[in-house]
Amino acid sequence: MDLPAGPLRLIELKYRPFQGVLRKDGTPAPEAAETFAAWVRYAAAVGQAAREALGTEGQRDAGFDIEVWNEQTFGSNFLDINRYYAEKIEYAEPFVYRRTRPMQDGYRPDARLEFEQDGCYAILPMTIDYFQDPANGFPGVEVISGFANQWPWDNGTGLWHGQAGFSRHYYTGGWQDCSPETPLGNKASGVVNALGEFEGRKDGKDWHTVEPGSYFVPTFRLACPEFFHTGFKTEMITRDVIPDSRWSHFKGHGRYTHNGDFRRARVWQTEVNYDRNAFFGAVFAAAGVPRDDPRALALAQRLAGKTFLRQYLFHAHKGLYRVFLFSPQPDPYGIGLLPQAFYDAVATNGYALGDEARRAVPPEFKGLGWFVGLLDGADSIEVTRACGVRKLVEHRPRLALAGDGTPAHPHRWHRDLFAFMPYQLAANRYAIPYYVATLDVTRAWAPDRDVLDPARYDMPEQEFDVTIGNLRGLGATVTAYDLLTHQAVPVEALAATPDTLTVRLRAVDYPRVLQVTESAPGILILAPEVARTADGGLAVHWRQNLPAERARVSHGPDWTRRDETVIELAPGAREYSTVIPAADLTGVPAVRIRVAAGGLEAVWPRWDEEPAGQAPMANSGSAKGNNTP
């Protein structure tokens, strides 16, 4: 190709980019193996530098984790040598990295034992194997896939041996106006309605393609940070963290899926945020003010605060292992998290965090810190007692989107978007963030107010009566706290029974926190354990904090059938042991414990698919109560 006259910047590569090992013309490419070996040395150097900076050499945990690669849509030319050549090189054989692991006690009989990865993506398992090797001195370092940032296929069943999990970068931002003319997906793709039925007249071209306009599409604006949990589109993070893979409708996806060794995939988001650029583009066009206008900055802070809290609390409660909002830069109208005033204060204080910088920290950080303080001060509870919503009443109902009045296309109300997310802090105490996860965080609720007034976009308080089940309502006390204003907010206990509490909450479009303190501790399961006996049976043992009024053990030949056979045990004890004979066991036995006292129930494990309580092979040792093996 012709180059223009003048200076030309060149970059010399020490190693050839990733490529195959044999060209189609029969020429070997030994440089391929050299590049992959160099990658491992590079990863080792990164790990050694991190370990040295943290001062963790020789300690039980090296103190950091590794994400292999970041977003293949940029800065990724080195992954493919043909990105450097106009005339492409053809290869007969790719580079292939393989590993075999022996069948071990504690694996499922169908566990994956042979592992293979070809091409540039082999750097992921090569990195995993390096950091997992005890001889290299990196205890506790977990390796996740960053190749998964921008594609949906990774799941627990596909994990390499020793891989901790994978990371998504499911950013949201701006808005999408949905209507029959502009559906959220491809016009020619069918949809699934509220009855779970495929909808649209098929055009015969593919299994999912239909005639445009042949299915119902509601009209609404979608602009919310929880978008990838809504299910409006096929690609969603919910299917990676849903607690039962039978509900995901995508083979291998789900919170407790694994490759046969019961090490579930940890789902991270090493980058995520709600991008506010489109909204503020429209605001500035309407207001005609400069970008440093204090009113615009105040509005930016308000919207950033809401989406900040909604993302952290929602993602965490739904099962994400790590969440990193991007970015801390002072970008008030985009994805920035901290204001310029914070950085100015740090700079004037010799680049040390001082009182002035702390005062510049936005209120949402302080609200999240308050909530984290609650969690830090919580008791260590191995098996939580799950409470849940028994009944929800929405006062002065607000329509979120209009259906057509049929069961297949129902209206969606704010009660359908009500988020209620319990965390148990002690045997008698819960903290429960709640809010309306509005579909449009940019909605002008008060259109008569100025376009720069934050109150224009604040959802007015709305009352909900929430009946919480499996909670000791009699004698319970309640309080509520606003994470943005840092003030107590009204909450009223309306009714109470031995196992329910009904409260009236005033919800807004960002999280407030309900705290419930029961009059006495509720029942908890302590130290549950399932272990093989010498003759191939299963010994089940646990304790409780209270005597059980009802105790039972159930089991089945796999996790999908945990409750198939029930063993009732005598009430009144605080500790139980029972043995399931080998003759009663088949398949991959899965056990569940249920105890009750005072009308409240504790269950271990809560979800069928959890690794806890599964004992797949003879002499498999112990399947302890920790739900994260």
Structure description:
With 629 residues, this protein is of the alpha+beta class. It has four domains: 22-141, no CATH class; 172-368, no CATH class; 381-517, Immunoglobulin-like (Sandwich), CATH 2.60.40; 525-624, Immunoglobulin-like (Sandwich), CATH 2.60.40. The chain contains eight helices and 35 strands. The strands form eleven sheets. Strands 19, 20, 21, 23, 24 and 27 form a six-stranded antiparallel β-sheet that branches. It has a five-stranded parallel β-sheet with strand order 2-6-7-13-15, with helices on one face. Helix 1 crosses helix 2 (123-132) and helix 5 packs parallel to helix 8 (363-376). It is globular, with a radius of gyration of 28 Å. The model is unreliable at 619-629 (pLDDT under 50).
